[in-house]
UniProtKB/TrEMBL annotation:
Gene3D superfamilies: Winged helix-like DNA-binding domain superfamily/Winged helix DNA-binding domain. SUPFAM superfamilies: Homeodomain-like. The keyword Amino-acid biosynthesis does not apply. GO terms for biological process: DNA integration; DNA transposition; regulation of DNA-templated transcription. Transmembrane segments: none annotated. Residues 4-64 form the Paired domain. Keywords: Paired box. Residues 67-138 form the Transposase Tc1-like domain. One of its GO terms (molecular function) is DNA binding. It comes from Acipenser ruthenus (Sterlet sturgeon). Pfam families: HTH_Tnp_Tc3_2, PAX. This is Uncharacterized protein. The keyword Membrane does not apply.
Length: 138
């Protein structure tokens, strides 16, 4: 669910102060009646309609850092998360753990993969396959 903009929140409070019902406010603003009710309750209790500060550690990477990590990985597909972390520290001064880089890459839709290890075809095997194909052509 998307959060309401500050302007919409203030509009809901103003309409309520003008005496409109929650249902009419909901129809006018395009906000659900439950959201209007919760917003008005919050305004009544705190006198404020702004979001409270979110709990938890704030993100260390800004959007520009995330883009830099993604582009670095796309330009050099074999670069490890440790190397990307070091490069990020050099370029932008942002110190992050390699696991933070990996999480950023996953959010960007890039996942770590290993190429399948298989032996190359030897010349003798190539000749045998060609003979078999010619023999069983029809």
């Amino acid at each position: 669910m998307a959060r309401l903009s500050t302007a919409t929140r203030h509009k809901v409070v103003i309409l309520h102060q003008q005496g409109l019902s929650q249902a009419k406010i909901s129809r006018q603003t395009g906000v659900s009646r439950c959201a209007v009710q919760a917003l008005l309750k919050k305004h009544k209790e705190t006198g404020n309609v702004e979001d409270r500060r979110r709990s938890g550690q704030p993100r260390k990477l800004i959007a520009a850092d995330e883009r830099h990590i993604m582009l670095t990985s796309l330009h050099n597909r074999k670069m490890s998360s440790s190397a990307i972390s070091s490069e990020l520290a050099e370029n932008s001064g942002t110190l992050v753990h390699p696991s933070t880089v990996r999480r950023s890459l996953v959010r960007s839709g890039l996942h770590g993969r290993l190429a399948a290890k298989k032996p190359y075809l030897q010349s003798g095997n190539k000749a045998k396959r060609l003979n078999y194909a010619r023999k069983h052509r029809n």
